[in-house]
């Protein structure tokens, strides 16, 4: 029996810019206290802020919880390489 194709689902819930819960997360590409780069169902997502840290992570279920002060959420265009731009790419934004 053929299973029906799953539709892509990605949810993001933020509370007071201090708690962020996401679904549809495939991978955490990189992270530090000021920036997270995630691969989600709908593409790459960059989260910027201060004192960011992982509260809960389950890649099997596609769940991620982050705490800290969130300043921005940016979805990167398909085909862009996020942090792989290199030093010159960062200088000439």
TrEMBL record:
<protein>
    <submittedName>
        <fullName>Sporulation protein YabP</fullName>
    </submittedName>
</protein>
<dbReference type="Pfam" id="PF07873">
    <property type="entry name" value="YabP"/>
</dbReference>
<dbReference type="InterPro" id="IPR012504">
    <property type="entry name" value="Spore_YabP"/>
</dbReference>
<dbReference type="InterPro" id="IPR038705">
    <property type="entry name" value="YabP_sf"/>
</dbReference>
<dbReference type="InterPro" id="IPR022476">
    <property type="entry name" value="Spore_YabP/YqfC"/>
</dbReference>
